[in-house]
Structure formats: C-alpha cells, structure tokens
Amino acid sequence: MTDIFSALIFILLVELACVAIHKRGVRATRVSDVQGTDHTLLPISKILVLAVGGGTACLVIVAASLDQGFWSLIATLLVYLLIRISIALQDVSYARKTKSLRLLEALSAPETATARFAFFFSGPHMLDPYHVTMWLEPLTSLGHKFVVVVAEQKHLANIPPSEAYHRISFAGLSINQRVLPLSCRAVFYANNSMTNIDVIRRNPSLEHIQLLHGDSDKPPSFNPVAKAYSRLFVAGKMAIDRYARNGVQVSDDLFVVVGRPQLKPFETTKKDATTVVYMTTWAGNFEDTNFSSFTQAIDILRAASECDGVDEVIFKPHPVSYKDSNWETVRQRFSELAKNSKIQIRWAEHDESPFELYAKADVLISDISSTIIDYLYAGKPYIVTNPQGFSNEELKKYPSVAGGYLCEQDVGNVGKLLRLALSEDPVAETREEVRQYAFGDLNRPIGAAFREACWEIIGKPVE
C-alpha cells in the first residue's frame, strides 16, 4: 500500500511539474493580451495527458496488487516520466512554432483591427519599459484605439493593461514579418533603437514619429538617425536648435513643437518642509554620453542633508543604475547615511514617478539630461552636476545648464548652492528665459499642442 501511495504522489508531482512547464511556455510565447491568442494544449495532447496519467496510475495499482515487485513499479514510473516530459516539451515546441500565426491572429482580431496608430518599442537592456509608460497617458488622451508593439518578451507584462490599447509582442520572430495592424496610419517611437529603422523600412506608407523619452542636451537628442523619421516631435525651440548646434542638419519641416504633454501643473503653495530631490542620469554606453554623477551620489546626498533649512532628501537614480559597477557600494553607503542622518533621506518609491517628484521638490539636483529640462517647466531652482569638469565654453553646448546653479567637479559647493537657491535665487530671471526657450506651448493648456499635432496625422476621434 505504501508503494502505491508513493507512486501516485510521484505521478501527481510529475503532472504539476508539466503543468508548470506548460504555463511557462505560454508566458514565453505570448504574443498579445488579445483574448484567444495564447497557446493552449491541443485536444490530442489533452487526451494523451489523461491517458498516460490515468493509465500509469492503473498500472501501478494492478502491479502492486499482483505483487510484481519494486523494480517493475520503478520501470513503469520511469516510462511514464519519459512519455509525460516528452509531451510537455512537444507542447512548448508547438507553442513556439505557432507564435507567428498567433501574432497575425492578434493583429487581425476585432480588438486591434481598427487601431489608428501603434507605439513601437525595443529596449533589450532595460528592465522597466519606462520609455513606453511615460507616453501612455498622452497617447490615450488622443481618443483612438492603438497598439503597443514590443520587440522583447519581458516588456509585454510590464506595460500596464488598459482598455485604450492592446499589447503586442513579436519576440523571437523576424521583424520582416507583419508586426502592425493594417489599419495603422502612424507609428510612434520613444528611443533610437536600430530596430525602429526596420519598421520604417517595411512600412514606408506610414507616418513615423519620433517622440524620444525626454528632451535633453545629451547626444541621443540630436542623433543623426532622426532624419529617418517623418516627424520629430520636440518640446520647443531649444530642441530644434540643438541639432544644428551639433552639426546635424535636419529639415525644419520635420520638426513639430508639442511641448511636454506628460507634465502637470506644479504646486505653488508654500510647504511646511523643504525637500531636495536628487536624480541621476545613466552613464551611457560611450564617453560622450556619460554625464552621470552616480559615483558622487553619497557626497551630494550628504551635503544636501547637512544644509540648513533642508528637511527631506529624496534620491532617485536612473532605472539602469543597477548595472553600474558601483551600485552595491552606493546602495550600502546610502543605507549608512540615511541611518545616521538628522533628517529624512530616502529612496524614491518604485511607483513615485519623476513628474511626482518634480512637484515635491523645492530644489532639484541632477545631471545634464532630460530631467532638468522637464523640471525647468516648474520654474523652480535646480543644481546641475558637472562630473566631467566642462569649461564655461564647453557648457555653451548645453543651454539647459544656464537656468541652474553649476556644481564644481568635486561637488564641494553643493551646500553653498543649495543655500543660495533656497534664499536669494539670483538665477531666477535667467531660468525663466531658458524656460521660454525650452517649451513652445507655455501659453497653452498642457498637452493641447501634442493632441492637435497627432490629430493632424491620424485624424480627430468622432465624438
């Protein structure tokens, strides 16, 4: 009886393991959130599973009742194991083979067949698809159904679901097959992934609109590949001039000034506590894109926490800072600093967006990046780090710096700059001039220019 019980438990565990393999295969080959496009077990596979599992259980009971011996029981279970695992692996293989067909079904389904536009994204080295999520609200405000198409499987589940759009993945498939609904009139992009060029090449009749994931003075914001797109949506005149200033000749016809539709009206009421927010950019893949002060983070945070009048310091490193070789050291030293500080020093919460932090900050400390330009919209003071030690002449290439207070290369003057920014704020007038230069929609409701520019391309929704 003990042998029968143990054998049945073994069969149950194998079945549970195979179910887990099936579920993992479904997740790994998922092509969309459209109902009916996930892989499912074939009817014949379901019959085989029931037959093999049930048949083996019966054989075990019969063998035990006939006293066929221990090794006979083991042989029966091993044969069952091999057959059942083979069925599970064949199931996963079939899921991969049908992925292309299921993708076409997802793109032709009633839910997606009327999508007016697509948002295409490829970010193989990113854990968080924030390039996508930061644009979902502005794109949803257009009032049209659309699809978000991702090149990597991991991003499919990390994009929040919505009734306004459907999520599509072609991970593991060729970009040369159809990855967009036939109804699309335009494709939006938020980075300069080379996969974008394949999409543009395969869909020459569509409008291809580069949004980028922020307006900054860094090289990605004047990448020569911009000329491949039909339109370049930019925040203001500063973004347009940036290309010419860096020797990238782009036709004026490509630029469309839309402001920054993600931004919200900022609080102007006086708070009881003074908050300093410190946000770093990432080091980039090349020296000319490395503006990050991440390795100086602890010195900057300490100086901010020791500044008179500061009640709270919030630290939000760039989402890919975890790849930095100094990540663990900074994390440990941050914990020690926060533990011994007389004021509150904390990490930004995972769901605390940059735009929420802009509203909380009285002063922002950041690197040359889109962060300071977005924050510039609020008109509040900011401090710019200078880890590369750029000279005044070199800094002319980065006009957003002019509206802030510049750190010394060794960040030794952070405390002094904070006191100045929180009191006299002598840069206020210049900052307003830079603000007007950066944003081309200041005299309009936030997002209005963006919606109008999009509707000109994809049409206005029928009310």
Automatic annotation (TrEMBL):
GO function terms (MF aspect): CDP-glycerol glycerophosphotransferase activity
Keywords: Membrane, Transmembrane, Transmembrane helix
Keyword Disulfide bond found: no
The protein's name: CDP-glycerol--glycerophosphate glycerophosphotransferase
Gene3D superfamilies in UniProt: 3.40.50.12580
Annotated transmembrane regions: 6-26, 47-64, 70-89
Keyword Membrane found: yes
Entry-linked Pfam families: Glyphos_transf
InterPro entries (alphabetical): Glycerophosphate_synth, TagF_C
Superkingdom of origin organism: Bacteria
Gene Ontology CC: membrane
